[in-house]
């Protein structure tokens, strides 16, 4: 592996250095179809300039045409944007904005496991691009809220129509947001935390 | 709304138990410590001339706490490469790591309150 000499490595800017007390981290994943505003949301609430981590995924593929039965392996590099919010001197929240090809997200070990929850961003002009990821979160039991990103020419549907189209239970919050605005993105995260908190209330 | 309609999926017990998944993740290749993207890492020593350049870079970066994801980003190395480098540094006690607080079957209300409190200050 080609490695840059460690003298040339730029670490965090001095204002981004965490205090030594920062020992507890939590994470939230921001998902949704292509171009719905995931990177924008990570960037608008992050205290650091968003960073990118990558992973090489090896997928066993099935041989094509005349190579029936021959297995081929394809390596794909998946890059992911993330940001950070210091919640206190000890507690740090990391936000991961998953990239384009959703089948890879769930192969990335450790991305969804242990996340407190997820934000599903949707664009009402292309609702169905987020269908598959919602199903995958349901299968994995990852709690999520739905944030409707307000693009200027996007049709506005009443929440109940969206809930019906997305086939979501009544308790799953659906809220409007503008991912470009820090306060709006923060409110989405607060909605997620309140929802998670409500799940902690014993039923009956 | 005349758009296509999604159909709800059921939780798959094979996929949805966070604790079980956690074990699988860590045991993936038998050798790697169960390091999460947001495991926090802090150096315990200055790099000695015997460590690899990548590991020396990690020891310098982590004089203040950093997540594994940040180390991967600053070193431009894939997550899995970073976790193997960290595993060696952990074994020789040159770094210390702190596992993240993960989603549990019953959510931890005081943790969620601390997160909300922090977000409200933004
Ligand atoms: N009007 C408006 N535009 C937005 C909003 N959020 C994002 N955009 C724009 O939409 C485009 C796509 O946003 P991205 O954040 O790159 O979307 P993404 O989900 O990360 O896209 P991929 O990673 O390619 O899947 C960008 O040009 C953003 O500026 C929003 O809330 N309102
Ligand atoms: Mg993006």
**What's the structural domain tally of chain A?**
1
Strand content of chain B: 5-15%
**Uncertain stretches of 5 or more adjacent residues of chain A:** 62-70
Structural class of the secondary structure composition of chain A?
alpha/beta
Distance between the termini of chain A: 57 Å
CATH class of the domain at 26-102 in chain B: Mainly Alpha
Helix content of chain B: 40-55%
Tell me, briefly, the overall form of chain B.
elongated
**Percent range of helical residues of chain A:** 10-25%
> What would the CATH topology of the domain at 26-102 in chain B be?
Arc Repressor Mutant, subunit A
Mean pLDDT score of chain B, rounded? Answer: 85
- Most extensive protein-chain contact, per-chain counts: A-B, 79 and 68 residues
Keywords (chain A): GTP-binding, Hydrolase, Nucleotide-binding
Pfam families (chain A): ATP_bind_1
Family (chain A): Belongs to the GPN-loop GTPase family.
Protein name (chain A): ATP/GTP-binding protein
Description:
The complex is a heterodimer of chains A (204) and B (122). In chain A, 24% of the residues lie in helices and 29% in strands. Chain A contains five helices and seven strands, in the order E-H-E-E-E-H-E-H-E-H-E-H. Chain A starts with 23 loop residues before the first strand and ends in a 5-residue tail after the last helix. About 10% of the residues of chain B have low confidence. Chain B is elongated. In chain B, 33% of the residues are buried. Bound molecules: guanosine-5'-triphosphate (GTP) and magnesium ion. Guanosine-5'-triphosphate (GTP) binds next to helix 1 of chain A.
């Amino acid at each position: 592996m080609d490695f840059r000499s460690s003298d040339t490595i730029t670490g965090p800017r001095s204002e981004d250095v965490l205090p030594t007390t920062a020992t507890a981290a939590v994470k939230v994943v921001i998902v949704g179809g292509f171009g719905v505003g995931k990177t924008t949301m990570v960037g608008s609430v992050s205290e650091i300039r968003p960073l990118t981590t990558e992973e090489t995924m090896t997928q066993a593929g099935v041989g094509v045409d005349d190579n029936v039965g021959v297995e081929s392996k394809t390596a794909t590099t998946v890059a992911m944007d993330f940001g950070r919010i210091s919640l206190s001197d000890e507690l740090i929240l990391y936000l991961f904005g998953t990239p384009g090809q959703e089948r890879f997200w769930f192969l990335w070990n450790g991305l969804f496991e242990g996340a407190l929850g997820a934000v599903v961003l949707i664009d009402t002009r292309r609702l169905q691009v987020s269908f598959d990821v919602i199903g995958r979160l349901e299968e994995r039991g990852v709690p999520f809220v739905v944030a409707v990103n307000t693009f200027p020419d996007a049709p506005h549907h009443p929440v109940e129509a969206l809930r019906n189209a997305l086939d979501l239970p009544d308790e799953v919050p659906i809220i409007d947001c503008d991912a470009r605005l820090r306060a709006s993105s923060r409110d989405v995260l607060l909605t997620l935390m309140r929802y998670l908190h409500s799940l902690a209330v014993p039923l009956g | 709304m005349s758009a296509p309609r999604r159909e709800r999926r059921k939780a798959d017990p094979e996929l949805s138990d966070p604790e079980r998944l956690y074990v699988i993740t860590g045991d993936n290749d038998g050798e790697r410590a169960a390091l999460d993207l947001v495991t926090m890492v802090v150096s315990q020593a200055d790099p000695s001339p015997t460590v690899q350049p990548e590991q020396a870079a990690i020891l310098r970066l982590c004089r203040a706490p950093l997540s594994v994801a940040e180390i991967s980003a600053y070193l431009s190395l894939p997550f899995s490469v970073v976790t193997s480098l960290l595993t060696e540094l952990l074994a020789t006690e040159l770094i210390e790591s702190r596992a993240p607080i993960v989603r549990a079957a019953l959510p931890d209300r005081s943790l969620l309150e601390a997160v909300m409190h922090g977000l409200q200050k933004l």
